[in-house]
Amino acid sequence: MDSILNPYYLGIVVIVGIYVILALGLNIVTGFAGQVSLGHAAFYAIGAYTSAILSLQGHLIFWLALPAAAIVTWCTGIVLGLPSLRVKEDFLAIVTLGLGLIFQSLANNLKITGGALGLGSIPQPELFGEPMSNFSFAVMTWLFVALAAFVAWRALNSRVGRAWLAIREDELVADALGVNTTRLKVLAFALGALYAGVAGSLFAHYTTFISADSFGFNESATILSMIVLGGLGSIPGAVTGAILLALAPEVLRPLADYRMLIYGLLLVILMRYRPQGLFGRSKAIRDRYAKKWLKKGGPKHEAAGNRKTH
Amino acid sequence: MKKTIGKRLTGIGAICLATMLVVAGCGASSTTTGAAAGGDKVVKIGFFGPLSGDAATDGVHAKNGAELAVDQINAQGGVKGVKLQLVAEDDQASSKDALNAVQKLIEQEKVSALVSGSYSGPTKTVNPIVQKSKVPMVVSYAVHPDITKGGDYIYRAIYTADVQGDAMAEYAQSELGLKKFAVLSQDNDYGVSIQQAFTAKVKELGGSVPVSRSFKSGDKDFNPLLTAIKGAGVDAIYVAGYYNEAAQICQQAKQLGVNVPVLGSDGFDSPKLIELGGASTEGVTFTTPFNRDEPRDVVKNFVKTYKEKFKEDPDMTAAQTYDSVELIAQAMKTGSDTESIAKGLSQTKDFEGVTGNISFNAQHEAVKPVIFVKVDQGKFVFVKSISTK
Amino acid sequence: MFWQQILNGLTLGSAYILIALGLTMVYGILNLLHFAHGTVYMVGAFSSMVAIIYLKLPFPLAFLLAMVLAGLVGILIERIAYRPLRNAHPINILISGIGITIILENLFRLFFGAQTRPFPNVNLSSKTYGLGNGLSITNFQIYILVTAVVLVGLLQILIKRTKVGTALVATSQDMKAAKLMGIDINRMVALTFFLGSALAAAAGTLVALYFNAIYPTMGSMPGLKAFSVVVLGGLGSIPGTIIGGLFLGVIESLGAGYVQTVIDANAIAFVILILVLLIKPTGLFGKKIEKV
């Protein structure tokens, strides 16, 4: 009865996987490039709605709707990343928070998103002409997780990734050293948005019903908490943080009313005693890294190469 | 460096503590009520609804209604000797959590029937799973039109939005002689679908709706909307929404001097309406499936036992969920496996519930009377009851 | 009806001002976004309710007690969630604030339940005064407007005319220099949180009375909108906040009254905010801000 292949457990595995992808995406924006976003759920929503609308009205199959959703969110990521060029840190947090609320409100009022009625009967993906079971859906979701983690890892260890870290540590210095901060910040937003788009598409086709309620501020705050718990900028951290916090509501089910309270306490305690998260390096170590790197000639070399390749 | 390690240890300690809390919580599982004593054959009924979070009031009342029904059925020896056991899961009114909860109920708890004590979004989300697993489900009070579609296993114990929208439009025009309406609707499936039905019927009968606006759950300031309504000079305001916002609308309408009758939908049906709205709710008329003062024995018994057990008056969601469990129990008379229950539900005809005599039509929708209730001297008073097709 | 909408908007705006002033002052002194400020507004409303029901205090006393209690809660929040993180990354401070918000909302939910409660009966019934031309104002609206004017006036006197006020201004202008001058920085920070939280509690109580509704999440939307007010007014500027609050209240009222928009009234605040920030990143009345 308690077999691991129980659809109930597999369903949780799918949801957890979706959160891991979301967390990996936000980790690129906030963890790597240091751009605080309190509106990540907006991209999640755009991905979910795009995929749902394309398959409901465009009769696109899931395997085409998902990449289409990814492209659309990539583009919106570029557009919505533009405010990050004008405002910083705290202001950016408020702006992204506002964007999240505006998108949720649009989803709740526009005709194309089904308004308050939401979008239902979203087709489940098919594999070899058969609707996918929870098992195959879970396997697919985690293949996406693996891909997302791999891409994030490659990006982090590339010139782009090192330039992101430079922006995070000190944007003025990075700029002065010749990093193209404008392009790189927008790139981080676009990539993070793309991840959220994939997650949104998976979510829409897994639950088959979406409405604006699923993409509120709480969702954005949860995703941010996941990467902070894991340690900003750390890929294993983002994965672990997402798994822990996505499982928490299921595991804490019996605690019902206390679960959110525990969640809040956890955040405050964590920020006070281990602000770098589970996997984060402490600031002292990070500083040493940065110094070493700057001594080696900083991002000049990389940034120059960067311009050539783009 | 030493200090860093100390700090780090404290941090890890804090995390371990939290993890232990989590693990400790794992021991207990979902709340179950009802007899599981040895010997008797027991059938599990799964319940899901918002038991915690902002919507907890409705979910807890729904669960209370279901619990009361299970207790009473078991006290009478169960259904043909088969006892019921209620397994309740929390969905926090979230689609994602409802999906997990229902899969848990079906796959792990192996329930024979389900009761939705939740809102439309969550209930709609679990539809494909429920239909595919062939587990019969009775929906207590969610009104989204698509909920019953896509198979033969989902039944709805509340009438759809158009039934009460139509009923109020007819009543207001032909009996109260009102012609020009302002409509305020909550911006969810509930409000929107009732508003559409009401508006269509009003126009069909020759009336008009010059102002139609929506509001959000949790809105408090209705002054801008009511000020616009004041300018339009209407005969009445129809509100398709719930008691919290309805109480605000009544209150602020009075303060702004908009002195026209306020009419409403079954979301008004809670003692909270009068508690929050005070004297301004005087004269408000609304449609509901449940009349507390009905002299029938089932109603009297329900109101009395509910009050004894939970120390408060039952509201509409409690009554609806009570009936939902009773409907499942009556469908079990021919057999307690999922197929027999589904078949039994499809054959339901004139079942006497606390919310009237209920039949299911071919679309799996409840057919039962619409009741008009009016607030009179701080109390809900029965006005009339009309039967629907 | 236009003037009625303006009047409604001014009432709404006065409440926003009372909430937003705390955020402005905190930002002015610590440069931090006090995310848990909205919950203090909720704490204020609940404190008034408890004082009236259980301590049987008359409304004006309950109102003052709620301001003091909420002020102490504000100080406590700063001690627990912000002071240990004073040199931390802004994201950490933000998350700490979010954590406090979740804790407080859920504590109150556990104690008082999630459902909306009516404001206790304080022998204040609503009265409507006609102003001619279909324009009307209720006594509750008058209370909010008058209280806002009085409290803002008192705050100005405190800041401009007293020694403590001068110390406060000095600290927000240059913390290091103030410290060298012998000002106890931590006391100034505590005072800021106390004053800001007390103002939020005043707003919470009056709005709860006006709408006859108290519930644990009542502070979340006003709290978020207060951010928008603060940024609109140019962070850290008190006169800016006042104009920003009135501006937002009136725009929201007119927006909800005249257009069936594709977005809710709640989102209007943020559309304006984003437009303003993109055009003039320092807010409508902001001085130059280093960070931007």
What can you see in these coordinates?
The complex is a heterotrimer of chains A (310), B (389) and C (292). By secondary structure, chain A is mainly α. Chain A has a single domain (7-309), classed as ABC transporter involved in vitamin B12 uptake, BtuC, CATH 1.10.3470. Chain A has 14 helices and 2 strands, in the order H-H-H-H-H-E-E-H-H-H-H-H-H-H-H-H. In chain A, strands 1-2 form a two-stranded antiparallel ribbon. The model of chain A is unreliable at 296-310 (pLDDT under 50). With 389 residues, chain B is an alpha/beta fold. Chain B folds into 2 domains: 31-159 and 294-368, 3-Layer(aba) Sandwich (Rossmann fold), CATH 3.40.50; 161-288, Rossmann fold (3-Layer(aba) Sandwich), CATH 3.40.50.2300. Chain B contains 12 helices and 16 strands. In chain B, strands 8-7-9-10-11-15-16 form a 7-stranded mixed β-sheet, with helices on both faces. In chain B, strands 1-3-2-4-5-6 form a 6-stranded mixed β-sheet, sandwiched between helices. In chain B, strands 12-13-14 form a 3-stranded antiparallel β-sheet, covered by helices on one side. In chain B, helix 7 (223-232) packs across helix 8 (243-256). Chain B is globular, with a radius of gyration of 23 Å. By secondary structure, chain C is mainly alpha-helical. Chain C has one domain (2-122, 132-218). Chain C contains 11 helices and 2 strands. Chain C has a two-stranded antiparallel sheet with strand order 1-2. In chain C, helix 9 (220-232) crosses helix 10. The longest helix of chain C has 29 residues, at 2-30. Chain C is globular, with a radius of gyration of 19 Å. Chain C starts with a helix and ends in a 13-residue tail after the last helix. The model of chain C is unreliable at 288-292 (pLDDT under 50). Chains A and B meet through helix 1, helix 11 and helix 12 of A and helix 1, helix 3, helix 4 and helix 6 of B.
